Amino acid sequence: xxxxxKETAEYLSLSEDQIENLIAEKKIRALFDGEQYLINKDQFxxxxxxxEKYKALIEEYLKEPIPEDIDVKDEx
Length: 76
Known about the structure:
Keywords: DNA-binding. The chain is an alpha+beta fold. The protein has a single domain, classed as Molybdopterin biosynthesis moea protein, domain 2, CATH 3.90.105. The chain has three helices and three strands; from the N terminus they run βααββα. Helix 1 crosses helix 2.
C-alpha cells in the first residue's frame, strides 16, 4: 500500500518537511509520479517491530528488582 507525503507524515508522527528531508537523504524510499511522492508503507514494518521489541526489553529491565547492596570492605 502506498501513502502520500501527508499520510506518511501522519503515520510516522513527523512533519511533511521532515519526510521530504528523509526522502532526499534516501532514508525513506519513495516514488515520484510526476505530481507527488508515493511511499510504500511496508518499509516501516521492520522499524515498528524493532520499536516494540525494544519497548518490551526496557519494560522487562525496569521490572527487575534492585539487588541488595553488597557490603564490600576495601582491605589492602
